[in-house]
């Protein structure tokens, strides 16, 4: 190959290298820090950009997306002198690429150390129980302190999370026993409350049942008494409306006497004096019937030869005599059962 061809080839390669170094394509959510002859020149935004070859140089490529850093567990001593291991997760974004590049050598290492010291300061003012139950408060305090400290580095801490808090094994055993005792206590309280509530409900149910039964019995007695009162009023009104005679009343009285004498509790039964009056009333009503009561022989004789009786009067007289005989027989039978002489009428 002749020297001219070699020269042209060298020139072509040089132009390709110059073109390659002059054009930079910046991806989305990235910034390039450009230095010219070792001095900061500008920051390239996303898209194609031109540089001065051999003069401008890319100092750093900065990712503007939110990033997550997981720091290893850090030993922290609480206010009650108990050591715990705390694992943290940090969320941050770069807001000023130039500050992140020129204000600190390694912002990730700086954020890690700052997180550790801030975490020790925050947790060191709390006891173990407060530390375990106040994660939200610790997260908020850590985020505020780190955001304030990293502002000069061009970083913004968006969120800090305590992923785990590991107390010593002995403390964990004691906490488990305490939690188990607390659960047993709550279970016993709930059981006692359930038993109490059940007993109260059963007592209230029994009380309501007794009240309802009493009300039912009372209402039944009231209705029964009302029925009896209405029946008596009806019978009384019917009797007064019919205007009964003395003969009818005496006849009804004589029919009731045998029922009175039939009671099992009656050991001795005395023929009442009203019996002769009833017979006399029937005799007077029949118009002069004479009745003699033989007290010695306990027999009742009625003379009906002087008067001719109609059918109803004859039936009434026969019923009266039959009632008197039944009363007398009942009295004699009870006297024999009690081995006592029959009482005279």
From TrEMBL:
Q: Where is this region: Disordered?
A: 320-345
An example Gene Ontology biological process: proteolysis
* GO-annotated cellular components: plasma membrane; side of membrane
Domain Band spans what residues? 21-179
Q: Where in the cell is it found?
A: Membrane
Kindly give the PROSITE patterns that the UniProt entry links to this protein.
Answer: BAND_7
The UniProt regions of compositional bias labelled Basic and acidic residues, in chain numbering, are: 326-337
Which UniProt key words apply to this protein?
Hydrolase, Membrane, Protease, Transmembrane, Transmembrane helix
Alphabetized Gene3D superfamilies for the sequence: Band 7 domain
Q: Name one Pfam family in it.
A: Band_7
Please give, as recorded in its UniProt entry, the membrane topology of this protein.
Single-pass membrane protein
User: What are the recorded GO MF terms, alphabetically?
Assistant: peptidase activity
Q: Give the matching InterPro entries.
A: Band7/mec-2_domain (IPR050710), Band_7 (IPR001107), Band_7/SPFH_dom_sf (IPR036013), Band_7/stomatin-like_CS (IPR018080), Stomatin_HflK_fam (IPR001972)
Q: So which domain of life are we looking at? A: Bacteria
Transmembrane annotation, as ranges: 6-23
Q: Which PANTHER family match?
A: STOMATIN-LIKE PROTEIN 2, MITOCHONDRIAL
Q: What family, per the record?
A: Belongs to the band 7/mec-2 family.
Instruction: Write down what this protein is called.
Output: Regulator of protease activity HflC, stomatin/prohibitin superfamily
Tell me what organism the protein belongs to: Glycomyces harbinensis
């Amino acid at each position: 190959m002749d020297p001219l061809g070699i020269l042209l080839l060298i020139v072509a390669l040089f132009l390709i290298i110059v073109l390659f170094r002059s054009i930079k394509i910046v991806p989305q959510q990235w910034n390039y820090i450009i230095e010219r002859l070792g001095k900061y020149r500008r920051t390239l935004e996303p898209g194609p950009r031109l540089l001065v070859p051999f003069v401008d140089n890319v100092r750093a490529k900065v990712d503007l997306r939110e990033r997550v850093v997981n720091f290893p567990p850090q030993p922290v001593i609480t206010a009650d002198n108990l050591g715990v291991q705390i694992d943290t997760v940090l969320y941050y974004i770069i807001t000023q690429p130039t500050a992140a590049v020129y204000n600190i050598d390694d912002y990730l290492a700086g954020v890690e150390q700052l997180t550790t010291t801030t975490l020790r300061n925050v947790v060191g003012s709390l006891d173990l129980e407060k530390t375990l139950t106040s994660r939200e408060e610790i997260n908020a305090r850590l985020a505020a302190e780190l955001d304030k400290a990293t502002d000069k580095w061009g970083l913004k801490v968006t969120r800090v999370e305590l992923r785990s808090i590991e107390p010593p094994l002995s403390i964990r055993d004691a906490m488990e026993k305490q939690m188990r005792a607390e659960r047993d206590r709550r279970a016993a309280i709930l059981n006692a409350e359930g038993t109490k509530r059940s007993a109260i409900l059963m007592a209230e149910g029994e009380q309501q049942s007794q009240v309802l039964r009493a009300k039912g019995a009372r209402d039944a007695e009231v209705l029964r008494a009302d029925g009896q009162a209405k029946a008596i009023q009806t019978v009384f009104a019917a009797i007064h409306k019919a205007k009964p005679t003395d003969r009818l009343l005496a006849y009804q009285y004589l029919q009731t006497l045998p029922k009175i004498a039939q009671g099992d509790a009656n050991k001795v039964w005395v023929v009442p004096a009203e019996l002769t009056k009833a017979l006399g009333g029937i005799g007077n009503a029949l118009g002069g019937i004479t009745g003699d009561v033989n007290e010695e022989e306990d027999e009742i004789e009625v003379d009906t030869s002087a008067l001719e009786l109609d059918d109803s009067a004859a039936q009434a007289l026969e019923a009266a005599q039959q009632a008197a005989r039944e009363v007398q027989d009942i009295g004699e039978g009870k006297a024999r059962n009690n081995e006592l002489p029959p009482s005279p009428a």
